[in-house]
Amino acid sequence: MTSNLPSDRKPAIIAALAGGWVADAASLGLHWLYDSQRIHEVGGQSPEFLPPKASYFTGGFGYFAHEGKQSGDISHYGAATGVLIDSLLASEGELDIRDYQRRFRGFFGPGGQWVGFLDNPTRVTLNNLNSIEQNAIDQALATTEADLTDQQKRILVQKVLPYTRRLTGNELAAPVRRAIDLTYHETEIQEAGVHIAETIDQHLLPESGADDMQLPTVSKLPPLVARYCGSDTLMEVTEAAVRVTNHNDEAVAWAKCAATLLDQLFQGKTISAALEAARTGAPDQDNLSNALSGSSLDAVKAGDTFGRTCYLHEAMPVTFHILSHANSYTEAVRANIQCGGDSCGRSWIIGPAMAAIHGVGGEQGIPLSWLARVTDADTLFADIESLVNGTWTPKEPEKASRGCPVR
């Protein structure tokens, strides 16, 4: 796709995406510690980038989920965001649901790269993707008219699955026939294999997510908004991407609220204008209005008032409060950590929003030293530069990820 993004906004959006990674990594050490007093005892006024330790959770209510992680590592939220960035880069900036699902399954599923905590939406999504595929296989085999043995059916399914996970429509027939021909030369069996592949393809569903309204809904949004900033299809692609992992109407509504907020800021609107535009479409406008009220930043009180858990109806008012009252990126990130609870999840709106406003460096932007503390920072930041600038390398035809694009 061709981005409508003005060139003069690209540096701010690159900073915004970097701001998500930094805020996530900064929050990891005290993530899911709900006791604000204990957070203050451990982290003081500078609670960022603490190494995750179980001892921090002694004497305070919380859940220690990040055994084995180091200071600067990202959470599972950041990992999932990275999966979508990889998919967008592979698809030349376009949301490709089939490619996104395949990468999500490959990264978080058995044999994948992720080592760490898996949240409920991720676990359920992985199960759903397996179930959707199995149902599609059953439908394909039930409608196959060729006289096949059980062994032939099993082999044909094994042959076609690598292609149905990567290709769609008219792309399937030729490579499927070539793959089957390595074992079966009979035209009838090859045609049966093509039928199986095409039927599986037709029955794979884009809505693979859990019936869940927690923060994984919105953590993936910054790179998506970066690519579709100012586009009249932003809400459509937001819903499509969200339903891959969170197939829930209220989750989608909150995602559209968050996407509106980021879209406004990425276009250069003021924080007050962006928050108001996002509030008007939110599921709970009253709580967001209450979060915006007052003259001073008090994230701990906001957590007491609205809640600190992963649910969007708690997290979004806290996020709105911090964004509307913090005067710098550092102040916002520290306030988010000090609030407690799901600080990593909230980071993926707070970090990009504050970085879009204040940029990098200076008294209000992302501290340069914080950028350097993120694990694999060079790779992460190079990818977001490629994504925003549209400098990806075109893929070879058979390796490209081109299934089910949302335009």
Descriptive key words:
407 residues; mainly alpha; 20 helices; 60% helix; elongated
Structural class label: mainly alpha
- Count all strands and give the number: 0
Count up the domains: 2
Helix-strand pattern: HHHHHHHHHHHHHHHHHHHH
Strand percentage, roughly? under 5%
Question: Tally the helices: what do you get?
Answer: 20
CATH class value of the largest domain: Mainly Alpha
Provide the low-confidence segments as ranges.
Answer: 395-407
Distance between the first and last residues' Cα: 8 Å
Largest sheet: none
CATH topology value of the largest domain: ADP-ribosylglycohydrolase fold
Mean pLDDT: 94
Q: CATH-wise, what's the superfamily of the largest domain?
A: ADP-ribosylation/Crystallin J1
CATH architecture of the largest domain: Orthogonal Bundle
Helical percentage? 55-70%
Radius of gyration: 23 Å
Which overall shape is indicated by the principal axes computed on the Cα atoms? Answer: elongated
